[in-house]
Amino acid sequence: MQNKSKTTRTLLALSLVPGFGPKRVKQLHQHFKGDLEGLFERSKRELRAVDGIGEASALTLLSFDDWDTVDEIILKTETLKAEILTIADPQYPALLMQIYDPPSVLWYKGDPDVLSEPGIAVVGTRNTSAYGRKTTKKLVQSLVEAGLCINSGLALGIDAAAHSAALEAEGKTAAVLGSGIDWVYPSENRNLANAIVKSGGIVLTEYPPGSKPDAGNFPVRNRIVSGLSYGTLVMESGIQGGSIITAELALDQNREVFAIPHTIENPSGTGCNYLIKNGSAKLVQTVDDILEELPVGDHSDQSSVSIKEPKISSWKEQELDDLSVAICTKLEAKEYQIDTLADELEVPTSQLLVAMLTLEMKQIIVQRAGKIFGLR
Asked: Of 75, 177, 310, 345, which is most buried by a Cβ count within 10 Å?
């Protein structure tokens, strides 16, 4: 495994250490100024000096000794003819680095330089209408002509339509998977994934080779789709769609959100109308409605979205899943910083953040500076 740097092996090892998710790895990267090569040789005292790392976390890291698994991951990556990009690499996209919990390791096929090109996320429902597909093709082609890379999730429906339209317009497109690089999901889009790579685009994932497309992976991966992009365009979505989660993540990342209006007869467009009605997304009628808000081409100023104050709603009046109930029960006692709450609930921060954003969308909780959350 001599062809992989020690830093890459260190970051792969960190991905195997319990409790060291993307946010904590980012803190390590920032604290040691990108010098992670000798991380496992540092003293407990040095590790405890890092914000958010206590006695137990430091000891867990220092007790890691599963380097055989690290080398197996590298060998499997090479066998798949895939590559690894880490948070310590110069090619790691600067825009993605800005988010709260950037993935520390990415597996990819294609051209990683695409990730640093000006991009926009184009997302939507799997259950598309003719209007949704037609509008997606039209707008994506115009966005490509404006020099934007099209970022999406390779799902059926709008995602696939966006990638395909970008390829047809001879533009760049990036597809973010919710599974391993060797497990393109859905299988119907394998040819599309191959075409993206062949065209000079990229297919990428934060999940190691062999990872199944588990349902919980997709809301988490959406933060990468939005994080790579200056803005997120929701083409067609229901109220509870994954695209709405992506829009909420984009807002949380201080990125622009756009939505296409739909007729009231279209149930697959209710989410878009909801975003527009609440002031969370800008209504889009032409491509200029998007371009004037992005720092690309002749437009150098990135405007901020004006969000109206939502109506307060009690969480006990809502139908919530078990995790959401646990969150609200904790927040009844006091406000929590996201990492502290994740430790309390024994839930990965990335998974918890998605749940928190969903609760924000339901107008149940509010976020304050420093990722501190409380009930409304």
From this structure: 177
